[in-house]
Amino acid sequence: MAADDPRFEDGQDIRDRTFRFACRVVTLCEGLSAHGGPSRVMAPQLVSCGTSVAAMLEEARAAESRRDFVSKCSIGLKEARETLVRLRICQATGCGEPKEVRQLVREGDEIVRVMATIIRNARRNAGLTPNPIQRSRIPNS
Question: Tens digits of per-residue pLDDT, 56-95?
Fold first, then answer.
């Protein structure tokens, strides 16, 4: 997609992409629920995190500040990572249709990468830095 495409400029592309991803996750989970066993337990967890990614990006769109935007996107990134792990578990254990799960793992990985870049760029452009771990210092004697 060209950088001059208006959908790219306002972030609509990633919101559309995560919406489609969420719909595919829901469809996969319908099959997991019908299968029974551990797949049935995995399905609601996967639906929850898989649909949260798109929801958090929509919330970020209405952020009240740059910090709020970064915060909402960061929560979405955490949800995307959780979704990716759960999809990888499905792939490793043979839950779900293998081709669809493989494609969702690939798409989930790409979404994680895009969202991490969005957050990094938003922080840099706003002059924000990631919260470093606070370390206590013992003064030199």
Answer: 999 999 999 999 999 999 999 999 999 999 999 999 999 9
* Whether the Cβ atoms of residue 44 and residue 76 lie closer than 8 Å to each other: no
Range of the domain at 109: 11-126
pLDDT of residue 1: 40
SS3 of 50, please? Answer: helix
> At 110, which CATH number?
1.20.1440.60
Q: How many CB atoms lie within 10 A of CB 81?
A: 18
Domain membership of residue 100 (yes or no) is yes
Roughly how many angstroms between the first and final C-alpha of the chain, as a whole number? 59
